[in-house]
Amino acid sequence: MPLDHPALSAADPELAALVGAEEQLQADTLRMIASENYVSSAVLEATGTVLTNKYSEGYPGRRYYEGQQNVDPIEALAAGRAAALFGADHANVQPYSGSPANLAVYLAFAEPGDTVMGMSLPMGGHLTHGWGVSATGKWFNGVQYGVRADTGLIDFDQVRDLAREHRPKLIFCGGTAIPRTIDFAAFAEIAREIDAVLVADIAHIAGLVAGGAHPSPFPHADVVSTTTHKTLRGPRGAMLLTKEAYAKPVDKAVFPGLQGGPHNHTTAAIAVALHEAAQPSFRDYAHAVVANAQALAAALAERGFDLVSGGTDNHLILMDLTPKDVPGKIAAKALDRAGIVTNYNTVPYDPRKPFDPSGLRIGTPSLTSRGLTTEHMEQVAVWIDRGVAAAKAEDEVALKVIRGEVAELMAAYPAPGLPVG
Ligand SMILES: *Cc1c(COP(=O)(O)O)cnc(C)c1O
Fold it and tell me: Are the beta carbons of 32 and 341 closer than 8 angstroms?
């Protein structure tokens, strides 16, 4: 259901039409990209405020610009809410997004050329955890761990061995395609042994942590990095949460180390999202996201889908489509035409190339925000199964039929600009 944008429509009809089309697309489709969500109307409004007009380099009470009467309390509110929600001593809410937040952590605790350790990208890690094509892999010596081929689970023997051998300054845990609970305590034990800073990158699972559906990285991690726009259901942005001893270097790294003025409209929207995430209804949401993912995983497994690690503990499912005899990219593109939006993804030990891998990654944060429940997951699995079969058969008519059925269901669960109950 498209929103009203009278000023935008009058000033720039071409752009307004594209925004309207995107609103329609987000309303009509089953959005299953694991890192995406729908923000509330309140969060959407906060991002569209006059706070976008304001410069405020520095931190509350220590700014390089005047006129901070309202911006200071807004940032203090966001930071205070973040620290309280995640049990951190300190929160920095200024990072522009997850990647710059992680770069700030390198700047705070390492020198170029130092060794750092993270999960390798094809095993489920993030580019910014020291992968070669990323600045973090070019400027630092990235040592990478993975998952076991037989279980699909993180290989802690390998993590410990690599840590002892290479003695990284930083250890990153967390990633973008990890369907299982992250054992922060196990990482902390290894980090302590070699005196490394443990960074938990909870970008994907922050909302689950906030809602009590995934264990907290504190007190195990020294620094917690997170985006605000994935399961946490806030605007596009990021935060760095720390124990007290790590607060100062992190703040200095974000500003003046890496960034200029913070995006105050985003900070305001983060504050709103954190307020929403502190409500009892958000706990229900977080648990519903996991329940939906588990119901969907079971329904997919029943239909012969090969799930990495055999299932999920969180919001995401990673499938190896090799048994279905359809490459991930072909499947993702066909499902998109069927109104099911996903992304192709490498799977651990993937014999295919990263730009044309074997896997498909899906998640339940968005459709849970729309109000879909475990009752709907059988139907979603049926659509995915039919869509993948149609991809293989190159049956465009079948994809069109699915698209109509998806739109019909989603019409009963309005978006975007979701009301939050
Ligand atoms: C999404 C993500 C990031 C990067 O966030 P951007 O906002 O896209 O820069 C970093 N780390 C992890 C684990 C992520 O999932």
Answer: yes
Model pTM above 0.90: yes
Q: For helices 264-277 and 71-86, give the axis angle rounded to 10 degrees.
A: 40
Whether 155 sits among the annotated catalytic residues: the reply is no
> How far, in whole angstroms, is CA 385 from its chain's centroid?
25
d(C-alpha 141, C-alpha 219), whole Å: 27
The total number of structural domains in the chain stands at: 2
d(CA 239, CA 257): 16
Centroid of ligand 1 to alpha carbon of 359 (angstroms): 19
Catalytic annotation present for 370: no
Residue 133 lies in a domain: yes
pLDDT digits (tens, 9 = 90+) for 297-337: 999 999 999 999 999 999 999 999 999 999 999 999 999 99
Rounded Cα distance, 206 and 389, in Å: 34
User: What are the tens digits of pLDDT across the range 88-104?
Assistant: 999 999 999 999 999 99
Tell me, what CATH number does 343's domain have?
3.90.1150.10
Binding-site residue ranges: 121, 125-127, 244
Q: What residues are in contact with ligand 1 under a 6 Å CB criterion?
A: 35, 97-99, 102, 126, 128, 174-176, 201, 203-204, 227
In this prediction, residue 421 has a pLDDT band, given cuts at 50, 70 and 90, of: very low
Q: Is 408 a catalytic residue?
A: no
**Which residues are annotated as part of the binding site for (6S)-5,6,7,8-tetrahydrofolate?**
121, 125-127, 244
Residues 159 and 297 in one domain: no
Share of the chain above pLDDT 90, in %: 96
Asked if the structure places residue 319 within a domain, the reply is yes
Inter-residue contact 193 to 219 (CB < 8 Å): no
Residue carrying the six token digits 């937040």: 101
Domain span holding position 364: 288-411
The CATH number of the domain where 101 resides is what?
Answer: 3.40.640.10
Helix (H) or strand (E) holding 394: none
Q: What residue type is assigned to position 148 of the chain?
A: R
